[in-house]
Amino acid sequence: MQNADPSTDLGDAALPTAVVSLKVIEALANAPHGLGVTQLSNLLGMPKARAHRHLSALREHGYVTQDATSNHYRVGWQLYLLGRACVGRFDLMTLAKPALQRLRDEVGQTIVIASYADDSVIVIDFLRGTSPIEITLRPGSRFPHNTSAQGKVVLAFGPDDVRDGFLSAPLAQSTPLSITDANALRAEIDTVRARGWSDAPEQLFTGINALAAPLLQADGSLFGTLAIVGSIHYLPASADPQHVESLLRTSREISAMLGFQTD
């Protein structure tokens, strides 16, 4: 059992709530495998009930996530967006900008980097396309996994508990072409995993398609997704092999920046 560090003992209930929440986030950020409520309360020297209240509030707003198997808490997508906005210490869009610009110039469409939560993908940032019909996305926008190309990548390459949890719930319908049958979605996930990329022609928005591929971290886990987004006129339902080749090459290049190495 971990002992509380006196320098981080938060047993004093008079401390401002915001300070306690920041200390909770700091502890989770320094725990690669996450922390349970008991571990966190011992580490910070606070009652379990108080730790649980902070974790629940932070989870509700996307600052932490909870592993369905271990019940451990980890930092979430909203914290990534906040850290990126405040510090830019690890700005993937800047780091990968040359690769993203090459991809944009090759395909002419909007290029999107996204993270993910249990039920959706979250846009981190995008690079505007050059085609006459330009697609823009607001950072922080969320789209269901089953209706988006990026979400299918998450279900194919992301954590098992995310996939299993998502498939156990009713599937949203954004357009008449959205996949709302769990068995059909499982078959689609298998296809995405086998070929290494996904698409979603008019499944999220009518007239819009996307091609997406995974961005992998050093340990092989999913960091997020890279996508080409455009009008169905420029990204038809039958994907252009050159678009797919450019997407996969760029996703491998950015994954290498994240530390992922292929055999």
Automatic annotation (TrEMBL):
Keywords: DNA-binding, Transcription, Transcription regulation. Residues 15-77 form the HTH iclR-type domain. This is IclR family transcriptional regulator. It comes from the Bacteria. Residues 78-260 form the IclR-ED domain. The keyword Transmembrane helix does not apply. InterPro entries: ArsR-like_HTH, GAF-like_dom_sf, HTH_MetabolicPath_Reg, Tscrpt_reg_IclR_C, Tscrpt_reg_IclR_N, WH-like_DNA-bd_sf, WH_DNA-bd_sf. Pfam families: HTH_IclR, IclR_C. Gene3D superfamilies: 3.30.450.40, Winged helix-like DNA-binding domain superfamily/Winged helix DNA-binding domain. The keyword Transcription regulation applies.
